[in-house]
Structures are given as structure tokens and as C-alpha cells.
Write a structure and sequence with these properties.
By secondary structure, the protein is of the alpha/beta class. The protein has a single domain, classed as TIM Barrel (Alpha-Beta Barrel). The protein has an eight-stranded parallel barrel with strand order 1-2-3-4-5-6-7-8. The chain is globular, with a radius of gyration of 16 Å. 37% of the residues are buried.
Length: 190
Amino acid sequence: MNYITESLPENYMMTGKFNDHNDFKNKLTHALSQSPKVVQFRKKDIENSDYLALAEIAKSVCKQFNSILLLGTSVDIFSQADVDGLHLNSQVLFEYDSRPISDKQLLSVSCHNLEEMKQAEKLGADILLLSPVKATASHPELEAIGWQQFSSMIKNLKCPVYALGGMQAADLNDAKQAGAQGVAVSSFWQ
């Protein structure tokens, strides 16, 4: 386990929509001023140079609030940024036979089933997001696993797990009772 994971906050936030670099900075600053969070910066369909510029803004804001910054991008783009870690989604999880980044950096992984969780462990994931705990509009094709199954699925994992999928900040107590580190919530981003 990475030493950083021993003191992870209860809230994990994925960045959302923004209008421009200034709006991005303002929304991230506002979200982090409310409470400590792990931040996953994700933005698809933009030029690599623009992504890296936004990652630098995120890095500066996260440093100001002593927050962990993960990039939800390719290993190639990640290697061009000096941030805390990389997030892999379940679509790319099986592209790797071994950990794709240094063990001095955090590796966060999204999983939906036991097979993906085993692959995340094989890669040495430091943080796992398990979803969907509840029904979610972002993945309507996936059946919600519920708190009981969530708890059962994570009980033997060595890394911290965040509950994802239909989560709200108000779900934190249920998540903690089920054995989670906390909740992964996109609604922190406003």
C-alpha cells in the first residue's frame, strides 16, 4: 500500500463540465474549499496540450488545498505531467499486464465486477472505485449492486475503496458502514 493511501480523505471527486481555464480553476477551488478530496481530473476530446495545461492548473489548486490529484487519461499523457497519480477506467484495465506507472505514484482504478477487481489487484492498484452501488444515469446498462454486495465484494481487498454510482455526499455514512474509504461523487463539482 502506498504511504499516501493511509491518510486518504473520505471524498473522491471527478471533475465535471467547465467553460474555460478560468472557470475550471474557480470550480475546482470552490469544490476543494468545502472539504478535502481526492481529485480525478478527466476531460475527453481535447488536445493533449490543452489537457496538460488544465492538469497544471489542477496541480496548482490541489497543492494549495493539500489534495491528491489523479489524471484520468492515457499513460502517455500522464507521463508528461508531474502529479500524484493515474486513474484507469474499466475499459482500459485489461490493456496492462503489470502496473503501468511507478509504485511511487498512486494508481486508481474503476471496477464493476470481481474480474475487474482481480485485475486491479494484479496491477497493484492503490485506490479502487467500485460501481454502481446505486442506479446511475451515467451507466444505465449496469445493475446496481447495493450496499450488502458492495461490502461483500470489498471485504478482502487490501487497498482503500470508494463507493461510486448514484452516490451523494449524504451516502458517506452508509459507505463507511459498508467498509468503504468514502464516496466518489461528481456532484461536488458545481
